[in-house]
Amino acid sequence: MHQHTRAFRRAGRLLALRSAEDRGETAEAVNAMALRPLAPEEYAVFLLDLCHNETDRHYSRFPEEELETINALTPGRPLMERHDLRGSLPRGVFFRSRLHRENGRVSVRPEVYVLRTPENAGFIRHIEGGVYRETSIGFAFQKPECVICAQDIRRCGHTPGQTYDGVTCHYLMRGVKEVIEGSVVPAGSQGTGFVARGGVDAEAPTLAMARRWADPAALAPLTPPERAWADE
To answer: What's the start-to-end Cα distance of the chain, in Å?
Structure first.
């Protein structure tokens, strides 16, 4: 059977921030992304949880192996505003990432640097001041797997959020192909965010996960494919 790749936005909440005062490995990692050496005072660094392995309010969940894939694909991807891939350029770049484990929760925890330019001054202040605190990851994956029957939830008869023999139906995001970007957004859903610390398959049609997660119509292919990012 031909498998489709879907473009997807995962929302979360920003909690805290991190400065770029450390000059050792952080500076080296940042400069690996730059075309010229950057002094630490030229950029701000933020640490955040981008996504995790818990079932969210839309009844979807990442298996840990997919988080490992996301973690590996995140460095080098852009930090955007509101998933605007048409009208704006990146605000920052994710330059390294790791998996964070705490009380059974596994999250992708990347670091992003934002240049301290006049254009970014307000953006940085809004993050540091706690006004911009919601995030969303954009990525492409292949299959929403129903936890009740292990089939593609677009084709089985189960509905996310409904209970079957004592089990609440939700679906697993399987086959992550690409991390497209991470964004600051007005409202999120996963509870991920900034953390304070010391001081698309080209041969397959793209599908979109809309905000109406339990609606089977939200899992249908979008034509043209670029519309997958239009309705955040």
So the answer is: 30
Sign of CA dihedral 220, 222, 226, 232: negative
HSE-up of residue 193 (Cα within 13 Å, Cβ side): 20
| Burial letters 191-225, b for 16+ CB under 10 A, else e | bbbbbeeeebbeebbbbbbbeebeeeebbeebeeb
Tokens of 148: 């009740």
Nearest-CA neighbor of 126 among 8, 14, 9?
A: 14
Q: What is the pLDDT of residues 60-105, one digit of tens each?
A: 999 999 999 999 999 999 999 988 888 889 999 999 999 999 999 9
Domain boundaries, the chain: 5-219
Residue 175 contacts residue 141 (beta carbons within 8 Å): yes
> Could you tell me the pTM of the whole model?
0.77
Are 158 and 148 within 8 A, CB to CB?
A: yes
Q: How many CA atoms lie within 13 A of 152 on its CB side?
A: 15
Tokens of 213: 């997660």
Range 143-148 average pLDDT: 96
Cis geometry, peptide bond prior to residue 110 (ω within 30 degrees of 0): no
Q: What phi, psi does 2 have (nearest 5°)?
A: -75, 130
DSSP 167-226: EE--EEEE---EEEEEEEES--SS---B-------TTS-EEE--S-TT-GGGGSB-SSGG
From 1-5, 21-25, 27-31, 215-219, the region with the lowest mean pLDDT: 215-219
Integer Cα distance of 58 and 147 in angstroms? 14
